Amino acid sequence: MFDIEVAKKEIPFNRESLESTLKSRFFYAPAFEAYGSVAGLFDYGPAGCAFQANVVDQWRKHFILEEDMLEVDCTMLTPYEVLKTSGHVDKFSDWMCKDPKTGEIFRADHLVEEVLESRLKGDQVARGLLSNANEQAAEDAEKKKRKKKVKEIQSVKLEDDVVKEYETVLAKIDGYSGEELGELMVKYDIKNPGTQGDLEPPKAFNLMFETAIGPSGQLKGYLRPETAQGQFLNFNKLLDFNNGKIPFASASIGKSFRNEISPRSGLLRVREFLMAEIEHFVDPEDKSHARFKEVSDLKLKFLPKETQQAGSTKPIEVSIGEAVSTKMVDNETLGYFIARIYLFLIKIGVDPTKLRFRQHMANEMAHYAADCWDAELQTSYGWIECVGCADRSAYDLTVHSKKTGEKMVVRQKLDEPKEIEEWEITLTKKLFGPKFRKDAPKVEQYFNELTQEELASKSEELKNSGKITFKVKGVNNDEDIELDDKFLTIEFVKKIQHVREFIPSVIEPSFGIGRIIYAIFEHSFWARKEDTARTVMSFPPQVAPSKVLLVPLQSNKELSAISADIAKILRKEQIPFKIDDSGASIGKRYSRNDELGTPFGITIDFETIEDGTITLRERDSTIQVRGSVKDVLKAIREITYEGVSWADATKNLKVFASQQDEE
Amino acid sequence: MFDIEVAKKEIPFNRESLESTLKSRFFYAPAFEAYGSVAGLFDYGPAGCAFQANVVDQWRKHFILEEDMLEVDCTMLTPYEVLKTSGHVDKFSDWMCKDPKTGEIFRADHLVEEVLESRLKGDQVARGLLSNANEQAAEDAEKKKRKKKVKEIQSVKLEDDVVKEYETVLAKIDGYSGEELGELMVKYDIKNPGTQGDLEPPKAFNLMFETAIGPSGQLKGYLRPETAQGQFLNFNKLLDFNNGKIPFASASIGKSFRNEISPRSGLLRVREFLMAEIEHFVDPEDKSHARFKEVSDLKLKFLPKETQQAGSTKPIEVSIGEAVSTKMVDNETLGYFIARIYLFLIKIGVDPTKLRFRQHMANEMAHYAADCWDAELQTSYGWIECVGCADRSAYDLTVHSKKTGEKMVVRQKLDEPKEIEEWEITLTKKLFGPKFRKDAPKVEQYFNELTQEELASKSEELKNSGKITFKVKGVNNDEDIELDDKFLTIEFVKKIQHVREFIPSVIEPSFGIGRIIYAIFEHSFWARKEDTARTVMSFPPQVAPSKVLLVPLQSNKELSAISADIAKILRKEQIPFKIDDSGASIGKRYSRNDELGTPFGITIDFETIEDGTITLRERDSTIQVRGSVKDVLKAIREITYEGVSWADATKNLKVFASQQDEE
């Protein structure tokens, strides 16, 4: 039996060769190449676009259809206020440093990293531990697809404790604030590596693309950095659509944007990208999942935060059931999605040995998140975050609700009424109008939004001084307002609750489709040992851009007619195919399609004219079998859409020793 | 037999009722409603999103798969230079007038239209021909979903010739330039209708959203106004992918953007919208189409430009074959796509009686276009352009090629070499370097881009005066340059051509998916005469958001278990379905799903427990039949995915007289 894993290992992976295949078969290309192209923008050609469409189709089936999710399609244009509330206006930034003389702009963390790395290299040269430092640096830069900023390694020995210090800084490089990066730059005298000119201190550069909506130019907007906010803002409508019941999930597939300071690493870091995101709304007091038992035995590779803190990258392999029961993974719903993410990625062609789930460290995680795991895929650029799976708690709904005054809650009838005690405020509304006039609603809203803790403290104030003092934005010029107890009372009262009202938590699996696609390109790529120029993309048939190549043996009327008949059947059955009736040799025609990842080839030859049989060729093994058109198409359909194995699907077809293939 | 067309006519269409259904079933909603929403931005909810996904899926099958088109996915972010070349920076504008006192902004053509219309109304009141002018104006405004700018109709009689003049202006309102609109405003004394304040003259407002790419803010970009430019710029790669052969077509499905001055008419005029565009590249000397005969007998309704110029809106109904042979439609390829557009629209639920093809008038059409037809759909807002089908000639490839210096041509080996005579320029390159230094390539490029006509005239100049005078942008401060005949010769020479090189023409069918979807909403909507509150969306099963509603008769363990089993089969077969096990009556549950357009209902009742049979309900007729799970699901599959009729698919199922339904 042909073993593709063996074949993959025989010729070491070569990124240049992959890139050449991706380019020549137009999977993707830099956008606007005729105009010199723009960093971080890529177009998908026919092969990449079909592959992407198939991945999205599988995603929709695996998640949306399978779990009855509510798909929504929200706008990319997003007004300022929404992203101010979500925190993106203030926090969705990288740090950049400008050279005031040359106008060059550097991303601060990358610059510090590169300069310290180059000094460590220079130290090793000085210590005689490294001879070809410059060559190696060039190679490293190439590996990371970075334009080198540090052009040459200087042989300078460092003190031992300086080496240690640099190494510590590098290990923590992803966690520094802008101020800290600025301090590091001063402390280690980091300048423009090209000119040795001074740099301005790091400034936050917001990564959202800004634009103006409408003709006045006064409504500031952004291109969304994620699809999530649109889903949150439709929560009430979705809850209503779901008859008021939770848990339920919404989902969205669409483009998002990130104005990278200096994009690199091809498809892995781009300015416009396709995302698929799920927002699963769940009771914060019950994060169990009805279907968890279906996946609980699945073994996965985990890199929990403790392992990382101990400086190790060796993953723990346990079942997701165990991971949840030991609390390594916070809850069942999070665990369920981690398992489903795994199953999805494997289905579309990710190599399971190159997939791990890495937990976010405390300092990486948003303050509100309960837990967060990334599905990371190993590529020649290192381990790349391709799917995030976070428990965002009730953060987003809470902030939007608070900002807009629109309640975003679930109401559940309690089986038994419950007695509770709580602070209750009563406003003497008829006094509010005369005192505050048009501002009265604002003041009332201020009181309605007070938390239990705030009410308790205001009650104390009212009791002690007979009045309370407070401020409301936009009222009384933002100055103190005083009200006495004629205006309001605050009491601790007993109440019977019939309905429980709560803001749900959100579990968010978030997929970067382009990154996953690139990782699959690497995982699927190999070269035949007979001829390393003959490369193959071993995509699973389900996601392969085209499923079948029709090859009439020669340019001949009869053969063409049969090929047209088969094409008609394939078209009717909606099996994507291509015909190659060019003059090229059979071997060459198949080779081209191996590079496109087309799993099946059909040859129409002179025997076909006689007895109606055709050959079916399997891409990876190049094995050929022969049978009637009907039987061959049945085999293709079963393997591609019904998950039947090649061996089972072709067991009634005759093995065929080809004379003409593979020349 | 139940006749849906009769049912539709019994209760007149009511847009308010439709909008209420679309809202309550969350087909779509204004985006960011909690934040007060933004005009022209809409989110699709689960029903609308699934409908949209099905329409896109059908589009992909009908066009891309059926015709082997090359789908590409290009970026929305587009650099300035590209859209400058395409003409969008200079011409993609509407005219706006600002009131300098209030800051209000009006779209000039809409303002002129509204003011003149209101004066004509006022004239009719003065003449005693109209009594309730203000009410009617309000109604008209509501119909057009416009905010009324003119608040009140003044009863003022106009001279007869003024009435005539106003009417002429209104008939041509779409064709005025900004300057002309400004002149009309002065001539007719048109001011801010609210304040009677003076307005500034109309200024062009570019409808593209602008943004800055990268951290320096210096790379200006736009959100694309159409997907076409990305396809043109990939022409060479696509031609290569297609082994150098034409005709072939590329296609793209994705969002485009248009910063409307004041959006209105719901989904019909929005700022962010889904487009599906085809660029079919064809030999300008042979625009025949291989599959034209398959559609040539199809009869369609045409509104050619001559009919419109004669002031008529009565369409001509002829076959597309005749339309092409009489040259009413310019060529076969354009005709083929017009027919294919028709077939697509009908398949997804457009009412054929509300569909016509309107030809662009000479003044509407871009100067380079050879012919252009819009598929217009009739809605309560009038006839709406939903698909454009234009022959753009070789314009786009020519301008991009000229701008970037990248040739975008097809090369065809000639069967027989051809002798041609043409002007040829020969540069003495060794003299160019010393004279022009770094500018030499620019000057050489200038000469390489000269057309045959220009070469002929330069040759004349050189012959007469021994030198030529010309300008090159960026060279010699843009001043005149002189060269004598030592630098170049221009001769009329005979040549043998073996290869024909040409820039292909482009036929572009361009679909506004959101507009089509809204028109289908109107065309599919009706109310039951028994109870007009019970509305129905009669989508074709193929595009209906969900296909089946599973309804267990009562809340009961056994019924739920059976319903879960059926759900499992449906999920496996990837037939979208919903379960409604709420306590609501069967009739209510079906009603809700009639509004969602779900074509089939399955009731699981106590008989099911006994004999395994279920009922199948058809949405429009509410007819029910009964049979085994297997037979019922087979019928659903055949009707939904294989185009079998209800009568044929259910002929072996028993008609079922329901007791519980439709209460």
Automatic annotation (TrEMBL), chains A, B:
Q: Name one GO biological process term.
A: mitochondrial glycyl-tRNA aminoacylation
NCBIfam families per the record?
glyS_dimeric, PRK04173.1
Sorted alphabetically, the keyword list is: Aminoacyl-tRNA synthetase, ATP-binding, Cytoplasm, Ligase, Nucleotide-binding, Protein biosynthesis, Transferase
Q: Which PANTHER family match?
A: GLYCINE--TRNA LIGASE, GLYCYL-TRNA SYNTHETASE/DNA POLYMERASE SUBUNIT GAMMA-2
Instruction: Enumerate the GO terms in the molecular function aspect.
Output: ATP binding; glycine-tRNA ligase activity; transferase activity
Name the CDD domains on file.
GlyRS-like_core, GlyRS_anticodon
Q: Which Gene3D superfamilies match?
A: 3.30.40.230, 3.30.720.200, Anticodon-binding domain, Bira Bifunctional Protein, Domain 2
Family, similarity comment: Belongs to the class-II aminoacyl-tRNA synthetase family.
**Major localization listed first in the record, in broad terms:** cytoplasm
Its subcellular locations are: Cytoplasm
The top EC class is ligase
Its EC number is: 6.1.1.14
Q: What's its job?
A: Catalyzes the ATP-dependent ligation of glycine to the 3'-end of its cognate tRNA, via the formation of an aminoacyl-adenylate intermediate (Gly-AMP). Also produces diadenosine tetraphosphate (Ap4A), a universal pleiotropic signaling molecule needed for cell regulation pathways, by direct condensation of 2 ATPs. Thereby, may play a special role in Ap4A homeostasis.
Q: In the UniProt record, does the keyword Glycoprotein occur?
A: no
| InterPro entries cross-referenced by the UniProt entry | aa-tRNA-synt_IIb, aa-tRNA-synth_II, aa-tRNA-synth_II/BPL/LPL, Anticodon-bd, Anticodon-bd_dom_sf, Gly-tRNA_synthase/POLG2, GlyRS-like_core, tRNA-synt_gly
Outline the extent of the Aminoacyl-transfer RNA synthetases class-II family profile domain.
Answer: 179-552
Q: What is this protein called?
A: glycine--tRNA ligase
Q: Which residues fall in a coiled-coil region? A: none
Reaction(s) catalysed (UniProt annotation) = 2 ATP + H(+) = P(1),P(4)-bis(5'-adenosyl) tetraphosphate + diphosphate
What assembly does the database describe for this protein?
Answer: Homodimer.
- CC annotations in GO: mitochondrion
